[in-house]
């Protein structure tokens, strides 16, 4: 279960990752000679945010200090964080309501039936940790080996990173996997008391070199709709539009529906 020191460490690492990706000229500073470290220096960021360089250093080191909302807003402005990154920053700093570990209620029959009603469009219902709680036959066909009938639930993140066939199904595997990991981090920050998240993250770090390399980069991303290219077992590479809906009474549950619009996105496999 995440502890407060863990959150301070995550806050410092998140700030450092964003500081190192911001070039001085992007922050309005002149480039002066060779720099030993990428991005802004701590002193430069503190100056632009109007705070003490020593105090900011303590914050990045995970010291036991508390940043005000005013300071966090200033840091987010200088670091050019988008809305979702800023929300993540505030949560790590303890300025957002932290959801406690929820008792995992069983999926109601009405909700579980929805993907079945959407056949032949691939559809499934996932929870916050990307466990697949309900799916239809088209989804099982499109994502082979995702639904295995094992003792634990099928999990989309585990499938993407640890199931070799996923690299063939996801035509653009790396950007899709990186985005999924960023969304998992966002979800984990919203549920700091839920032990399922650190268990899943530890499993990914132990078994996936890519997850182990990308997790320290502290990318965050909300769940969203969009388009992705998937390799259908019988029809080859197809560009799918996918739409995500949150259940009103349980917003941590998401219904995802895929539609291929009848088109293909490449040669058949």
From TrEMBL:
CDD domains: HTH_XRE. Residues 14-86 form the HTH cro/C1-type domain. It comes from the Bacteria. InterPro entries: Cro/C1-type_HTH (IPR001387), Lambda_DNA-bd_dom_sf (IPR010982), MLTR_LBD (IPR041413). It holds the Pfam family HTH_31. This is Helix-turn-helix transcriptional regulator. It comes from Streptomyces lannensis.
């Amino acid at each position: 279960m995440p502890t407060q020191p863990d959150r301070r460490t995550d806050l410092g690492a998140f700030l450092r990752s964003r500081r190192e990706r911001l070039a001085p000229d992007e922050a309005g500073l002149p480039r002066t000679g060779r720099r030993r470290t990428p991005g802004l220096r701590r002193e430069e960021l503190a100056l632009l945010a109007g705070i003490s360089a020593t105090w900011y250093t303590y914050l990045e080191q995970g010291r036991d200090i508390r940043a005000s909302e005013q300071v966090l807003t200033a840091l987010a402005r200088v670091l050019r964080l988008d809305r979702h990154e800023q929300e993540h920053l505030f949560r790590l700093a303890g300025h957002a309501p932290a959801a406690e570990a929820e008792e995992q209620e069983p999926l109601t029959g009405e909700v579980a039936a929805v993907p079945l009603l959407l056949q032949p469009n691939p559809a499934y219902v996932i929870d916050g940790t990307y466990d697949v709680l309900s799916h239809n036959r088209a989804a099982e066909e499109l994502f082979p080996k995702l639904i295995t009938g094992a003792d634990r639930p099928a999990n989309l993140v585990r499938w993407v990173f640890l199931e070799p066939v996923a690299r063939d199904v996801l035509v653009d595997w790396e950007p899709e996997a990186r985005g999924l990991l960023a969304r998992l981090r966002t979800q984990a920050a919203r549920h700091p008391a839920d032990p399922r998240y650190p268990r899943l993250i530890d499993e990914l770090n132990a078994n996936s070199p890519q997850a182990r390399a990308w997790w320290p980069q502290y990318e965050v991303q909300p769940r969203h709709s969009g388009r992705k290219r998937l390799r259908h077992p019988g029809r080859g590479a197809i560009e799918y539009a996918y739409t995500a809906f949150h259940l009103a009474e349980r917003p941590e549950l998401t219904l995802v529906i895929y539609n291929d619009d009848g088109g293909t996105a490449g040669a058949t496999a």
